[in-house]
From TrEMBL:
Name under which the protein is recorded: Demethylmenaquinone methyltransferase
Reactions catalysed according to its record: a 2-demethylmenaquinol + S-adenosyl-L-methionine = a menaquinol + S-adenosyl-L-homocysteine + H(+)
Family per similarity comment: Belongs to the class I-like SAM-binding methyltransferase superfamily. MenG/UbiE family.
One Gene Ontology term of the molecular function aspect: methyltransferase activity
Gene coding for it: menG
HAMAP family for the chain: MenG_UbiE_methyltr
Length: 223
């Protein structure tokens, strides 16, 4: 499914999010706070839009995704950036060593993993002690009134717009359903703590349509 929408994926996301995807990406980059000399994993990177923003700092960035089509499109667009590498990877069995990355991040991909808790544990494994995690993901707006408007948009307006601008409108029907089924902010925070992450916190973006979760791997590895 993701292979089929790779070419127009970023454009469609910008249209469907009313341009908010750029604000969410900027907030994620600030939270990761990449620096030259660091090694950063951007998991579920898609075509690499978020990875490019991280690599602009001079950090060595690995853009990983399960979709071969997304990786191919990312390489086509950004393959000349010297400190950006594209890798096909399964989030539940990452092809990286223990304690390899200074920071790990995942934007709008965790809810698409069959075993999200396993992916969270894998991210912990490959992060250096003291390293950071940033997860940007759709969430549940806390306001009942706003949540009603948001559900109306997702159920009635988004499918129509997706059909007009996407090469595979059915894929966005799935994405809409995955957003509905995804747990709220407190539940995801609990999953992170359960996996062993510490200093877990989050803040809502766009009234809670999206939540930016942050955490740290304990300085002394518990494994």
């Amino acid at each position: 499914m993701f292979d089929e929408v790779a070419a127009g994926y970023d454009r469609t996301n910008t249209v469907l999010s009313l341009g908010n995807d750029r604000l969410w990406r900027a907030a994620t980059t600030r939270a990761v706070a990449p620096r030259r000399g660091q090694r950063i994993l951007d998991l579920a990177a898609g075509t690499g839009a978020s990875s490019v923003a991280l690599a602009a700092s001079g950090a060595d960035v690995v853009a990983a995704d399960f979709s071969a089509g997304m990786i191919a499109e990312g390489r086509r667009r950004h393959g000349r950036i010297p400190n950006l590498t594209f890798v096909e990877a399964d989030a539940t069995a990452l092809p990286f060593g223990d304690d390899e990355f200074d920071a790990v991040t995942m934007s709008f991909g965790l809810r698409n993993v069959n075993e999200p808790k396993k992916a969270i544990a894998e991210l912990l494994r490959v992060t250096k002690p003291g390293g950071r995690l940033v997860v940007c993901e759709f969430s549940q707006p806390p306001s009942r009134v706003f949540n009603g408007f948001y559900r109306f948009y997702n159920d009635r307006i988004l499918p129509v717009v997706a059909k007009a601008v996407s090469t595979n409108a059915e894929a966005y029907d799935y994405l809409n359903e995955s957003i509905k089924d995804w747990p709220d902010q407190r539940t995801l925070a609990a999953w992170l703590r359960e996996a062993g992450w510490t200093d877990v916190a989050w803040r809502n973006l766009s009234f809670g349509i999206v939540a930016l979760h942050r955490a740290t791997k304990p300085a002394a590895s518990g494994r």
